[in-house]
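Task: sequence in, structure out. Protein: Histidine phosphatase family protein.
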Amino acid sequence: MRHGEVHNPEGVLYGRRPGYHLSELGRKMADRVASHLADHDVTHVVASPLERAQETAAPIAEKHGLEVATDRRLIEAANIFEGKTFGVGDGSLRKPEYWRHLVNPFRPSWGEPYVDQVVRMNLAIEAARTAAVGHEAVVVSHQLPIWVTRLHAEKRRLWHDPRKRQCSLASLTSYTFAGDRLVAVGYSEPARDLLPAKLRGAPISKGA
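Result:
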C-alpha cells in the first residue's frame, strides 16, 4: 500500500525527511482502506519508518488487533533533490549545479538506483509474507519503491515515465502467491473518490 496524502504546504520533495505527517484527507484515506480491508485475513501489518507510512498503517492494524511493525527496507527512495522544490520555474531544475544529476534516467542518476530499491523491497515483502504465512500481510511503503518493484515482478523495464506510474495515494498493489511462487499482481484504489480530481487519472481497467 502507498501512504495517504501528506501535509506539505510548501510543496517540497520531502523524501526521507522526518516531520511530514498525513493531512486530514490522508487520514481519511487511511481509514477508508482500513475499512476496505476489515474483512480480509490480515495477520501482519508492516510499514516504512517514515511518519506518513506509520500513520497510514495504524488504522489497518487497529482493525485487526495488531501492532504496526517497522521495516526500514520499505523507506522512500533516496533523492538528491530531497528538501527542495522540483520544477522549472523557481525549482531546482533552473539551477545549473543540479543538472549533472539528471544525466542518466536509466539508473537514475539523481537518486537511489532502481535495482537497489527492488532488492530491498523484495526482501521486505518476503519477510512480511513469512510473518503472515497462510494469511495476508499489509505492507505500507512509498510510490517509487512500490512501482519499480511491481515493474520487476511483471518483468518490465525499471526505467519509466514518472507521469505514468499506476500507484496513487492510498492505493493497493497486491501480490498473490501459490506457495513460494508469485502468481498474480493486482491493483486497486479503495480511496479513489477521495483523491483530488487531478490525481485520479484514467479509470482502472478490469483485473488491474
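The two ends are 15 Å apart (CA to CA).
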